[in-house]
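[Meeting: bench + compute handoff]

Bench side (C.D.) handed over the final construct sequence. Compute side (W.E.) agreed to return the predicted structure before the next meeting so the bench team could plan truncations. Sequence as handed over:
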Amino acid sequence: MGTKPLVERVDACFGAHIHDVDLRHVSNETFASLRELLTEFGLLVFPAQHITLDEQNRFAAMFGELEFPAAAITNIDIDGTVLSDQGHDTVKSIRGNEGWHHDSTYMPVQAFGAVVSAEIVPPDKAPTGFADMRAACAALDEVTREQLRGLRAKHSLYYSQGRAGYLPTKNEAGGYSMYGYHDKPVPVRPMIKVHPDTGIENLLIGRHAHDIDGMDASESVELIDRLNDEACVGDRIHFHQWEAGDVVVWDNRRLMHCASEFDLTHPRRIWHTRIAGSEVTELADNYR
């Protein structure tokens, strides 16, 4: 394969399909091109790659340290049962992810991004949506943008899953065993954040955001809900229709994403490798 990827824009103000690249064998020169394209487009889709999990993790590690290696996002239980019971903890997690969000804003360090591959795709494709928070920030009126520059919000998985009615079952210790339910201080993050690679402002909102500094609860909920609704519209959103073998990479510092509701009687399995953010730029304000 050549070192110059073929780029085909998607139907949005961001994002591109990338062709003529074999992710099993990415040279340093090719990776440098892909890294530049990720900075430019925020979302890169590599159709029909069919890479192994080890190959996926190796590719993701070229971007930086991993927050965690390939983990299954699936409604297939360990015994092969296809899970559709709305009360099952796995299904609750899947359903919660249908809200727009950034990954790991509820952790001390927000993620850089992720590499995700599709293994089993249901008939309705179970598309994943992406939304450009750089364009959403630019679209704000100046009064709102100036207001948000001085505001910060907490980010919590307890909050987002609880509000949606999808908190998992408590363990014997009275807590939750699933990833992200930690007992550390709730991260506090600016509502507008300058992207460390581009120097451009991005909204930092999503379903995990709550309790804006200096606002009462109802005022905070109203503002965050309005921003989320107004941000994720028009050419600022793109839904990737999965095919088995597809690989997607996105910049979590720029894009929000969400799962789509799909028919849970059909099996689905995608693999998510999360790339850790830099403590220099992605550490929550109250951890500094």
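W.E. noted at the follow-up: The chain has a mean pLDDT of 97. C.D. will use this when planning the next construct.
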